[in-house]
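SAMPLE LOG
Freezer: B-3
Tube label: C17
Construct: single chain, 325 aa
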Amino acid sequence: MDRNGQTLQSLGRRGSFLDSFGWMDNNTFVYRDHWGGSNKLVHILEISTNVELANAYIHAAEINAITPDLIITDNGMQTEGPYSAAVIATQIFNPDDVLRSHIKNLSTNDHAPYLFNSRVVDTVLNRNQVLVRTWDASEYLTDTLHTPVDLQLWDPQTDELTMLIPGSYTGRITPDGQYLAALIPESEFPQLQLSNQFTGQVIFMRPAYDGKLSFSPNGRYFTFFTPETDLIIYDLETGEMLPPITAVPALPIWSPDSARFVYTDPTLGLSIYDTRNNTTFPLAESGGERLSNPQWSFDSAYLSVVTKIGEVGEWEWQTAVLALP
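STRUCTURE (predicted):
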């Protein structure tokens, strides 16, 4: 569909439990369907030619990130949860896999592919590296969210691991890999540690709300929630902690140019924060609770939202595309 919603094109793609995930670039789309059992088939589709560039099946694929080169996923049975980090790529890791993607899994034993011991946390987009939680391969770990494990950096091309913070359980990293935010377990609230990986400097440590950490796409801004669930924005360029925002604890949805992000105001619903002038405004003057699923265009000029129309029991959903000033 084009931006004015008038030109609709069917690509003739069908599948069981079909769902979409996102874009590798403006012309390459990633979607997923059901393969059988717990398997999912992930497809990489070139929109302009309707040609499938690559596909791969994977157990209950949880897609964490999409870069111009890689699809970063978690691999695992639905009943047991993810047990390995994995990548799907259009480039050929194995010369025998012609025009098909190769799933490269993180494992302590390449000959025992089900002894995986990692889950994806974040992606160093500029380097095609993955921030992962790892634990001993002999352990059966079902709750990695609150269990102290190790944060390591995984390079899928070389299969190399670099230890970053032992004893943490989750974190975020900037696209260039310079800044790392990690949560370290404490008795009441986890300790948030923000550090510069290039210099080894710990910028600050403070209690934080569990999870919900984010960096802007350009790596300048870092957001987190206090234990009181206030949203805090930290400017890494100036070292300034900006005034807190009242928000529902959820990950901000950043525009690709890092100028704005979408968050949820407890009263007004979906709202915009503008980093250029530190102002906020709601997307709707009334009925904000009917808006959901915000998505930015690649140039950050447009924002699409799903709008719920009608009355209880007779809801209809439509997509609206907003042009932002």
